[in-house]
Design brief:
Elements lengths: L7 E6 L1 H9 L10 H4 L6 E8 L2 E9 L18 E2 L1 H4 L3 H22 L2 E5 L8 H9 L5 E10 L7 H6 L3 H11 L4 E4 L4 H14 L8 H11 L5 E8 L5 E10 L2 E9 L8 H15 L4 E3 L6 H8 L4 E11 L2
Parallel strand pairs: 10-11
Antiparallel strand pairs: 1-2, 2-3, 3-4, 5-12, 6-11, 6-12, 7-8, 8-9, 9-10
Helix pairs in contact: 7-10
C-alpha cells in the first residue's frame, strides 16, 4: 500500500447512521439500502470508514451465528458504498485513498469474521487493491468477474423502440402471446401462488433451493405493500391460475428483476416475452431509467436476459477464506 499518511478510522454503526449515509450516496442500490434490508431477517453489521468526521465508505456485512460472511440470496452488488464526495475525487489521488480505505476494512474484517465475500457495483471495476494484496500475501482473494444485463434509458424509449431491442425470436413470441385471448393481465398475487410457481420451476430444472428461500420470497412480497417492490403477471382466464409473474424491486431510478417465473405448460405461448414487456412498460411509466435483469451468469439464463435488448455490464465478486 502507498505510505502516504491518511488518518482513517473504522466504526461499526447503527442502522440509522448507515441509512443516513446511504441516503446521500448515488451508489446505494435496493440491495444495499438499510431501509430495505431492515425488512429481512439478516444479521447485518454496518461498518463505515471515516477520515476525521467525514464518512467515506459504508460496507454492510451479512453474517451467520458463527461469523461466516455470506451474500444474501437474491441480492446483488452487496458490498461497499462510496460517498459522493469520495467518488468525485480527482484521478491523481483517488487510487491511493481508495486502497487505504479498503485496507482498513479488510484488516478489520479479517479480525472480526472467518471469511470475506462481497460484490462491487457494476460501475466500480477497480480491483487493484485485491490484485496487489495477492502478490504480497499467502492467502489470496478470489476475484470473480460476473455480468448483469441492463436496458438503459427506458424513460426515453417508446414501446416500439423497446420492442426493437428484442431478439427476433422474442418478437415472434410476443406477437403470439398478444393474440392469445385465454390470458389476462394482473398485478396482484398471493405469496403462496408465487412460491408455488417458483417451487415448480426449480423442480422442473431438477434443482434444489435453500430453506430460507420461502421466507425471502415472502419478505419481497410484503415489500409490494410498501411500494418498494411490484409483481407483474398474467393469469389463465378459465381457472384464474397464475401462469407468469415478474417480481420487481425499485431503488432510485432502477428497476431490479428479482424473480421471473412462467408456468412450464405455457412456455411456448410467448407469455414470458409479453410479461417482460409489461414489466418494462410499468417501470417506464413509473419514471424508472434503467431496467436491471440482475445477473446473467449461466449459459441459458444469460442468453435469455440478453434477448430483451439489455447491455452486458461487468461487476466483480471478491472472496477470501482465512482457513
Amino acid at each position: 500500500m502507498n505510505n502516504e499518511k491518511i488518518s482513517l478510522k473504522i466504526k461499526k454503526v447503527d442502522l440509522e447512521t448507515a441509512l443516513n449515509f446511504s441516503n446521500k450516496s448515488n451508489l446505494t442500490t435496493f440491495f444495499t439500502n438499510p431501509n430495505t434490508i431492515r425488512n429481512f431477517k439478516f444479521k447485518i453489521d454496518w461498518w463505515i470508514v471515516y477520515k476525521g468526521e467525514e464518512p467515506l465508505c459504508l460496507w454492510p456485512i451479512n453474517k451467520d451465528n458463527d461469523k461466516i460472511v455470506k451474500l444474501p440470496l437474491f441480492f446483488y452488488y452487496f458490498g461497499p458504498i462510496w460517498s459522493n464526495n469520495f467518488i468525485q475525487l480527482s484521478d491523481h489521488s483517488i487510487l491511493s485513498k481508495r486502497n487505504k480505505v479498503i485496507d482498513v476494512f479488510v484488516q478489520k474484517f479479517l479480525k472480526e469474521y472467518k471469511n470475506l465475500i462481497c460484490q462491487f457495483h457494476y460501475t466500480d471495476h477497480d480491483m487493484r487493491y485485491f490484485l496487489w494484496w495477492n502478490k504480497d500475501n499467502y492467502k489470496k482473494f478470489e476475484i470473480i468477474p460476473k455480468y448483469t444485463s441492463i436496458i438503459e434509458n427506458i424513460n426515453e424509449k417508446n414501446e416500439k423502440e423497446i420492442i426493437s431491442g428484442f431478439r427476433e425470436l422474442r418478437k415472434r413470441m410476443l406477437k403470439k402471446a398478444q393474440k392469445n385471448d385465454d390470458i389476462y393481465f394482473e398485478d396482484n398475487f398471493s405469496y403462496e401462488e408465487i412460491f408455488h410457481l417458483y417451487k415448480n420451476t426449480i423442480e422442473k430444472k431438477k434443482q434444489t433451493f435453500e430453506k430460507t428461500v420461502p421466507d425471502l420470497i415472502n419478505f419481497f412480497h410484503k415489500l409490494c405493500n410498501k411500494g418498494t417492490c411490484k409483481t407483474i403477471g398474467y393469469r389463465e382466464k378459465k381457472n384464474q391460475k397464475l401462469i407468469s409473474v415478474i417480481l420487481l424491486a425499485f431503488e432510485k431510478n432502477t428497476a431490479n428483476v428479482i424473480l421471473n417465473l412462467s408456468s412450464d405448460q405455457w412456455k411456448e405461448s410467448g407469455i414470458t416475452a409479453l410479461n417482460m414487456l409489461s414489466a418494462i412498460k410499468y417501470s417506464k411509466e413509473n419514471k424508472i431509467v434503467n431496467f436491471d435483469f440482475n445477473g446473467a451468469n449461466s449459459p441459458i439464463g444469460a442468453d435469455d436476459k440478453q434477448s430483451y435488448g439489455g447491455k452486458s455490464k461487468l461487476y466483480f465478486e471478491i472472496k477470501l477464506n482465512k482457513n
